[in-house]
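Example record used in the benchmark description.
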Amino acid sequence: MQQSRLLAIVLTFFAFAMVAFAGPVAKTGMTDLAVRSDADKLDAILKIFVDLHVKIKAILVVIAKLKVTADISVHVAKIVVLINAAIKAVIAVGVVVDLSATVKIVAIAKVCAQIIIEISACIEVFVAIFVNILAVIKLDLAIHALLIHLNVCIVGILVIIAKLCVNIHINVALYLTTTLSLLLGLL
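Model output (structure tokens):
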């Protein structure tokens, strides 16, 4: 008698569990992208970073038109908001297990390196004002958080991004040094 009651309770819980798992799942925000494989996840992350690059570049164009003594904290705050939204989107995509698609991973790293270099090149000029220093600190923390979450999703991508940033920085410095020496040679 006890066994039949226990069996009835277990079967009832099993029936409720089947109903719960069979129910529809609500879609919200960036998670409505049906990401199935790691290749799709890499495509989604690449799209997130390309969109982020385009939006940040538009803000950097506005910042570049300002005077050196201008307060850029409002514009930097917009960039921080964009980066935080990208962090949430990258977290929603999830962890990439298969790292064999090196072309996509390098493409993501290149876009991320371009974002970092362009931000640092544009904002470096405006750090002299105290209000800008506070905004740049917030921006720096947001970029660090983005890199940490990206490295969680794609293990080892920070090494690629660091090499690209150093290479881009060295190439730009070499170009500027060469151009400056040519101009001084003409004078």
